[in-house]
Amino acid sequence: MKHIPTVGFISLGCPKALVDSEKILTGLRTEGYAISSTYQDADIVVVNTCGFIDAAVEESLDSIGEAIKEHGRVIVTGCLGAREADIRARHPQVLQVTGAHAYEEVMAAVHTHLPPRHDPFVSLVPPQGVKLTPSHYAYLKISEGCNHRCTFCIIPSLRGDLVSRPLDDVLLEAEKLVAAGVKEILVVSQDTSAYGVDINYQAVNWRGQSVQTRFYELADKLGELGCWVRMHYVYPYPHVDKIIPLMAEGKLLPYLDIPFQHANNRLLKLMKRPAASQNNLERINAWRAICPEISLRSTFIVGFPGETEQEFTELLDFLTEARLDRVGCFAYSPVQGAVANTLPNAVPEEVKQERLARFMALQAEISAERLQQRVGRIETVLVDEVVAEGAVARSKADAPEIDGQVFIDGATHLNVGDFVKIEIEEADEHDLWGHLV
Ligand code: SF4
Question: Where are the beta strands (DSSP E) in 309-402?
């Protein structure tokens, strides 16, 4: 039998990078390449890298190093690809480097170093593409890049300004996913609420109707597909308020991943983020009044250059008031190339770590209390996994990978992708336990 050209693929980084990987893998499969998860079966290895923070850069460089050692023929793509000189300084043997979402370039690089086999019978790719997530949920990327210039972030310099996909294109993909059995769609981008602004909210024809390419319309139309729809990376623009009624109606999951980053106005300004934490508290209360079930996830940075103890305490006060459900927190890390690195009064590492620990301890109490309030409730959950002891599911309040899980002891007859009703019996600061009703 003729040898099938085989590509080994390593996917690092965030869900957006994962979507890029899926697109590349789909392209490769369409052209007849086989995909291998081991070095020895691969003819070439593609590493999709992440360059968001220094730890991710190191992980990416290490993975490239491992692929070179174990295999030798390596193509690098993804966010770190924008820093070709850094990659070549460490790993001069790399065959080719392409940048973030440079789909055509990666495909061309693979063609150069491993020509495809021409065989008209190999295009057996499922219409929804090759997915790296389990088949019952999928990430849907609606745009690339970002128009903001948050001073701690280098994503716009790596990925460029916002480029939105027209709404009909996004909805078609979503429909295919649902037809293929996907039960939950996770909307991702760098800035989900800015969707469409770069293409002047271009009107598209969708099922005989003219619909604008805009955040609200996206939410509304996805909400008609009959699956769970979860919104990630929602920048806190005022117009975000408009989608909360869709959550109350059950069209969207009552879940908002909305990074606030800090609560002190001076620091928010230095970060070039929208200020006014008082506003945010009022908005959170208003959202809860419209949709009492809403779960809020946010991320924050502590130890930003110049952050005083008093400003940090203001952040803790905000947390105490806001009672967010899930929170991620990072000690400020001076990513190479970020404008914030030039700001005066860097916070010493031990102070950053001490603030991070205080922040996390407070939020752990709040998260535990929020989860405790759900004990005794009946909720619908989605089964992610069935193991010997029972089923592992997620509630509407839990995004895969980043939030908690719901354990249903003994429910081994369930299937992955089932929606079931449970009564919640127990909670800790992260997860829930329940039984079927
Ligand atoms: S909104 Fe800010 S933090 Fe997010 S990608 Fe854009 S510049 Fe970076």
Answer: 326-331, 378-387, 390-395
150 lines ligand 1 (CB under 6 A): yes
Give the C-alpha separation, 9 to 41, whole Å: 11
Specify the 3-state DSSP secondary structure of 285. Answer: helix
In order of 193, 256, 310, 329, 358, the CA distances from 259 in angstroms are: 12, 9, 21, 10, 19
Strands (E), 275-401: 295-302, 326-331, 378-387, 390-395
Instruction: Judge contact between 78 and 12, C-beta under 8 A.
Output: yes
In the structure encoding, which two tokens stand for residue 390, read together? 């029972």
Q: 264-284 burial string, b = 16+ CB within 10 Å, else e?
A: beebbebbebbbebeebeebb
SS3 category, 284:
helix
Question: What are the pLDDT digits (tens) for 340-369?
Answer: 999 999 999 999 999 999 999 999 999 999
Q: Is the dihedral of CA 283, 220, 143, 74 positive or negative?
A: positive
DSSP annotation of 397: T
Q: Tell me the C-alpha distance between 405 and 68, whole Å.
A: 37
CB-based contact 359:316 (threshold 8 Å):
yes
Contact criterion met (CB below 8 Å) for 100 and 60: no
Question: Per-residue pLDDT tens for 229-280?
Answer: 999 999 988 899 999 999 999 999 999 999 999 999 999 999 998 766 678 8
Give me the chain's average pLDDT, please.
Answer: 91
**Alpha carbon of 190 to ligand 1 centroid (Å):** 6
Residue 326, beta-bridge partner list: 297
Lookup result for tokens 């190479």:
336
Ligand 1 neighbourhood includes 160 CB (under 6 angstroms): no
Separation of alpha carbons 150 and 337, rounded Å: 12
Q: 92 with 146: CB under 8 angstroms?
A: no
Rounded distance from Cα 195 to ligand 1 centre (Å): 14
Residue 387 neighbours by CB distance under 10 Å:
9
Rg of the chain's alpha carbons, rounded to an integer?
A: 23
For residue 44, give the nearest of 87, 69, 84, 9 by alpha carbon.
Answer: 9
Kindly give the distance from the C-alpha atom of residue 187 to the centroid of ligand 1, in angstroms, as a whole number.
16
Question: Is residue 114 scored above 50 in pLDDT?
Answer: yes
